[in-house]
Amino acid sequence: MKSARITKPHEPLEVQQLEIPKPMGPQVLVKVRSSGVCHSDIHLWDGGYEGLDGQILKTTDRGVKYPLTPGHEIAGTIESLGDQAEGFSKNEKVIVYPWIGEGLCPACRSGEENLCDKPRSLGVYLDGGYSEYVLIPSFKYLIKINDDLDMDAAATLSCSALTAYGAVKNANLKPNDNVVIVGTGGLGLMAIQLARSVTGARIIALDINDDKLKNAKDNGANDVINSKKEDTVKSIMELTNNLGADAVIDFVNASKTVEVDMQFLRRRAKVVLVGLFGGELKLGLVSMPTRAYRLIGSYTGTINDLAELVSLAKRGVIKPLISNRFKLDQATQALTMLKEGKIAGRGIINP
2-144+321-349 domain in CATH 3.90.180.10? Predict the structure, then answer.
């Protein structure tokens, strides 16, 4: 099988010929039809994240090993099953839940494998979907889909939509709350759709790209602000009758964006940090208790959340925006375009 692999950080991905895995026990071999291109893949390609004082947190220090086949947003068809795999048959359409835990830690025991102490996530620690086939450790990480759901759109549910859904849930929005969505790429657009559909909140979208802000408006944002052209804090305070935002969901999560976030918060506001841009934040500690702010880190979601998303997508409540499609030998181009902000919605690799 052909797989596009990161051999070394910063090096172009290599399309390599690998042996097709044979599933054993509960394992399932999936023929990949669609694999989403995610910002997390860029961090794997770069070899790290920016931490405190500009220090790089290396992916290898987190247990990532190269060469690696990235890709954790995966939709495809069942190719073959191990002798203990149940409930699926060859050629059935499925999406993959990639946030696999080791099964024994408190998070795994409570159904939150995405927060496992020793994660084994596909496309991060195990080979993922930039490939013609991917081996799934157990059938329990698969969700059936049918012809009502486009395969490319389905793939994005397992990270882009799931991450947005988890963030919207963590924001705990109520009808008529004012929520600011920072960053209107693929995740931000999905969060706007979800917040509009399931919370009844008023949505203010924030970005530096007018085209992305137009997409935000088209996807349900009530107001949009270009933070490069406008005074962000002043604009948001005017839109909220000088009370401030009830919640912020920051899909960039850089020092500059979060510093601004903290300036337009209403009392009791929640700041949900999602993006992995990195950096550091200085806090006025007295304001944290006196204004009762809540800082919340949000990382993807559970397999039950993914099942809910599949239901929402099947009913047309949410519609992932697929803006670019690539082949395996274009994987480096896909990551480069995403890194340069040239993909408005979601990019997909079709092996």
Answer: yes
